[in-house]
Amino acid sequence: MTMNPLLIEVPEAIETERLLLAAPRAGIGPALAAAIGESVAELRPWMPWAQQAPSIEDSEAVARRQLADFVLRKDLCFQIYDRAAAGRRLLGGTGLHRMDWEVRRFEIGYWIRSSAQGQGYVSEAVQAMAAMAFERLRARRVEIRCDDVNLRSRAVAERCGFELEGILRSDGLNPAGEPRNTCVYARLA
């Protein structure tokens, strides 16, 4: 019998050498809107939710939905903060998505604001999420899925020790509505 996911303890904060990964909370709408607004051009090809800069109100609503889903164990989003920056600057987001609690399978997603790209923050966050999934949540399988032409995302998966298991051809549509191929990377317990 599978344990009720509502009873599973999930840390609300994870610290790495440079980062704080924090569960969503009310009040982060302004910081979230700023990070996405700065990065919308880079995120647009990959993220359906980043087709235009969001308003503060829209970002606050997103944060509150993420908080509700976190509590219900439906989706485990975390914001990525720079621990060293004054006020802990919001750098992006990560999380465990499309979870199967019975199988103990999770998918890691991630994005980073443009001014924080190329500094290893995403790889550091992904390693922390994978460790949490395997050590705390007893994951059997952790995946990263990305568009086959998203070379930066593929490089993160490969740097973090995920193995390319296959490419699903024309399995979905990109945000522009065109067919896309999806790379499936995985690590097993």
TrEMBL record:
Keywords: Transferase. It comes from Roseateles violae. PROSITE patterns: GNAT. This is GNAT family protein. One of its GO terms (molecular function) is transferase activity. It comes from the Bacteria. InterPro entries: Acyl_CoA_acyltransferase (IPR016181), GNAT_dom (IPR000182), Ribosomal_N-acetyltransferase (IPR051908). Residues 41-189 form the N-acetyltransferase domain. PANTHER family: ACETYLTRANSFERASE, RIBOSOMAL-PROTEIN-SERINE ACETYLTRANSFERASE.
